[in-house]
Structure formats: structure tokens, C-alpha cells
Design brief:
Layout lengths: L12 E2 L9 H7 L9 H18 L5 E6 L2 H12 L5 E6 L2 H12 L3 E6 L8 H11 L3 E5 L1 E2 L4 E2 L5 H8 L2 E5 L18 E3 L12 E6 L1 H16 L19 H8 L11 H17 L1 H21 L15 E5 L6 H12 L1 E2 L11 E5 L7 H17 L8 H12 L1
Parallel strand pairs: 1-12, 3-4, 3-5, 5-8, 8-9
Antiparallel strand pairs: 2-10, 6-7, 9-10, 11-13
Helix pairs in contact: 1-9, 2-9, 3-4, 5-6, 10-12, 10-13, 11-12, 12-13
The chain binds pyridoxal-5'-phosphate.
The site of pyridoxal-5'-phosphate (PLP) has 14 residues, from helix 3.
Cofactor: pyridoxal 5'-phosphate
GO molecular function, one term: transaminase activity
Pfam family, one: Aminotran_5
Length: 407
């Protein structure tokens, strides 16, 4: 065989719903030398990263750490560790990732109850309250931003609601964290998870998680059950966390002061996650959200300036992604492929009921930038015209520029 040359990816501007291009300093951090698992530098870096993520999540939770794996590793760790077989779990579904939470809860042998709104909408608090009263779940699992529909479910009143009804509150904030407001403590979250490859501006492969003291109690109680089981076939064994890798009780012991060996923390991903949080806090949490808001507003104005129809309830759209209907007669996948091949720009396709109907365009993390917005809109205009759509000349870039001028 011919041995291929060193890895050499083509230049790309990733303007889809994620993954997106990482901050250059994150890529640099990932090439830093490795140290041993219990090197004082390693454990100090873990501790430091925990503190940085308390800033990102807006929490004082001790149990703030990373799960090794992509975002769904964090989701799985939260759900399998908080849910015992037979527990009732309520999952309000407003897009693809709600279905994922429900599926993972099913695998954890929960009794799963779902409620749904049509894609492109979010739940009113009253609908969630009604379902909580009816189902009486032990856990509410709710996506914050669902990239499949671009919607951002308001969470600010949900924590108090869960508290009143004695329900644990978990949210998957993968798509939204860093680009939209998220207040783990002020909003009463018991557990929240994310990934790096959306607004945090890193590669996929590490999942930040935070757990309230109440969630930690649930996790620790299960550890005691496991410790008490001696005989195979002991009926209490059904309460076991259904995973070793994602057993938060064990993972907390590894990240905590006892440093009990579990997995080997993924060193280069730890460096990446640390740098993502460092970059965010250095710029300022509010300033980064505002940068996403402006980039998102500019992209929204731009696609509307091109005469495209935006999908969903714009008032509840995430800052960092917009879905546009593919104009009549334009071959969605062929046009998207041309944009990638000729301009090096990636935008997203869609799933489920939206498949073939909309493209999703993201402005996140490192790419929530004016030049990235302008380049994408200019290329999109040329692309649409080439595939026969009537678009106003300069309509996209002009509208987006106006947003930046008045920002
Ligand atoms: C993108 C996204 C994920 C991605 O999960 P991965 O395991 O990192 O691919 C999960 N949840 C939501 C809400 C997302 O938008």
C-alpha cells in the first residue's frame, strides 16, 4: 500500500448547525505535550478546568466536570446515573434531541412519558406544569436549544416548577451554551450537559456537565446500594447504574479529592475544554452571548434580505442557528455540495419532518464573526442565483451589514 501523507484537511468555513471551526487557540492547546494521569500538573489542570466551567455554567456546583466523549456521553451519564429502572421520566419533545433524551431514558429502563409540540415551536410553561402534575416524574429531561428546529426552550421558570413538585430538572444545553443565556443556579438546574462543538468553539469529544447538590445526593445514594450488594442475583442489583463508564458516582470520585482511578481522563480533550472555557470567560460570558446575538441577527436579516423564508417561531429562535426554506426548484443537497466544494463553506441539511425542506445555517463560537457572516451570505446569493432562484442583488450582505452598523 502507499502510505498516505500527514493529515491535511481542506480549508473550510463551517457555518452549519455544528460542528463548527474551533478557535485557533483551542487547536494549539490540543497540541500541548501530554503528562501522566496523576501528574500534579494534570490533576491541577482538572481542578482548574472545573472552576472555569463553574463560570461557564453560572454555578457554584462542586460537581462540575467533564465527561469524556461527545455531547451524548454527558447526556447518557446524567440520565443513567439519575434514573433508576422503573422511575418515571418526563421528556417534552420539540425536536430531534428530545427523542434522543427519551430513547436514552428508555434504555435506562425508565418509564418514559413524552409530550410534544410541532417542530418550530417551544412549550409554554403551563404545558410542562400540567404534564408534571399528571405524570409525577422523578426527572424532567428537557433540551434547551434543539438544533434540529433552531428553537430555544425558555428554562428560567422550569427549575422553580420542578422544585415545587419535587422533580429533578436536567437540561441538554449542547447547542445553546455559550451563545444564549444559561444560568444553572439561578434557573434551578439539577443537571446540565453540553459539548464543545457548538457555541463553545472546540472539537467534539468532551462533554461539560454540572450537578446540583441534590443530584449528587441521588448519585451517591445509588453508590451505597452498589457497595451493599455482595451476592450475584441480589434483587437490589436492579438499582445499579446501568453503565460503568457513565457512572457519575465513580466519575465524581475520580474528579474529587480522592482521585479514585476510573478512566484515564482524555488529556488533549481536557486541554481543549479548558481553552474553550478560558476563551469564553476572557471575552466575558455576556459579551460572547451578545456576539452570538448580533451574528445571529445579522444572518437572519441576511437570509431574509435574500428573500428566503425562515422556518419556525423566530421569537424563540436560538441566537446561533437559523433554518431557511429551500426555494422552489433549487436542489437542496446538490446546491449544498456545490457550496462546500467550490466555496469551502458548509451549511447544514435537516432531519425528520424538515428533511429536504430547509437548510440550517449556524453562526457559533469562533465563527460568530462579521466576516464569516458576510462571506457566507455572499456565497449563498451567488449559489441561489446559479440554481435559478431570483434573489435581490446584494440583498443579503446589505441587510447583515446594517445589523452590524447599528450594533
Ligand atoms: C448537537 C447536539 C448534540 C450532539 O451530540 P453529540 O454526541 O456531540 O453528537 C446533542 N444535543 C443537542 C441538543 C445538540 O444540538
Amino acid at each position: 500500500m502507499t502510505i498516505p501523507g500527514p493529515i491535511s484537511p481542506p480549508p473550510r468555513l463551517l457555518m452549519g448547525p455544528g460542528p463548527i471551526g474551533a478557535y485557533p487557540s483551542v487547536l494549539e492547546a490540543m497540541s500541548a505535550p501530554l503528562v501522566g494521569q496523576y501528574d500534579p500538573f494534570m490533576t491541577a489542570t482538572m481542578t482548574e478546568t472545573q472552576e472555569l466551567y463553574r463560570g461557564v455554567w453560572a454555578t457554584t456546583n462542586d460537581a462540575t466536570l467533564l465527561i469524556d466523549g461527545t455531547s451524548r456521553a454527558g447526556i447518557e451519564a446524567a440520565i443513567v446515573s439519575l434514573v433508576r429502572p422503573g422511575d418515571r421520566v418526563l421528556v417534552p419533545i420539540f425536536g430531534r434531541f428530545g427523542h434522543l433524551l427519551a430513547e436514552i431514558a428508555e434504555r435506562a429502563l425508565a418509564e418514559v412519558h413524552t409530550i410534544e409540540v410541532p417542530w418550530g415551536q417551544v412549550f409554554p410553561v403551563s404545558a410542562i406544569e400540567e404534564a408534571i402534575v399528571r405524570v409525577q416524574p422523578t426527572l424532567l429531561a428537557l433540551v434547551q436549544g434543539d438544533t434540529s428546529t433552531t428553537m430555544n426552550q425558555p428554562l428560567d421558570e422550569i427549575g422553580a416548577l420542578c422544585e415545587r413538585h419535587g422533580v429533578l430538572f436536567y437540561s441538554d444545553a449542547t447547542a445553546s451554551l455559550g451563545g444564549n443565556a444559561f444560568e444553572a443556579d439561578a434557573w434551578g438546574l439539577d443537571a446540565a450537559t453540553a459539548g464543545l462543538q457548538k457555541c463553545l468553539g472546540g472539537p467534539s469529544g468532551s462533554s461539560p456537565i454540572t450537578l446540583s447538590p441534590r443530584a449528587v445526593e441521588v448519585v451517591q445514594a445509588r453508590k451505597k446500594i452498589e457497595a451493599g450488594i455482595r451476592e450475584p442475583g441480589d434483587p437490589s442489583a436492579r438499582d445499579f447504574v446501568r453503565s460503568n463508564y457513565f457512572d457519575l458516582g465513580m466519575i465524581l470520585d475520580y474528579w474529587g479529592p480522592r482521585r479514585l482511578n476510573h478512566h484515564t481522563e482524555a488529556t488533549s480533550m481536557l486541554y481543549a475544554a479548558r481553552e474553550c472555557a478560558r476563551v469564553l470567560l476572557l471575552e466575558g460570558r455576556d459579551a460572547v452571548i451578545e456576539r452570538h446575538r448580533i451574528a445571529g441577527t445579522a444572518m437572519l436579516a441576511g437570509v431574509q434580505g435574500l428573500g428566503l423564508t425562515v422556518f419556525g417561531d423566530i421569537a424563540h429562535k436560538m441566537n446561533n442557528v437559523v433554518a431557511v426554506e429551500i426555494p422552489e426548484g433549487v436542489p437542496g443537497d446538490i446546491a449544498r455540495a456545490a457550496l462546500l466544494e467550490e466555496d469551502g463553506i458548509e451549511i447544514g441539511t435537516s432531519f425528520g419532518p424538515l428533511h429536504g425542506r430547509v437548510w440550517r445555517i449556524g453562526t457559533m463560537g469562533y465563527n460568530a464573526r462579521e466576516d464569516a457572516v458576510m462571506t457566507t451570505l455572499a456565497a449563498l446569493e451567488a449559489l441561489l442565483r446559479r440554481f435559478g432562484a431570483a434573489v435581490p442583488v446584494g440583498g443579503g450582505v446589505e441587510a447583515a451589514r446594517d445589523v452590524y452598523r447599528s450594533a
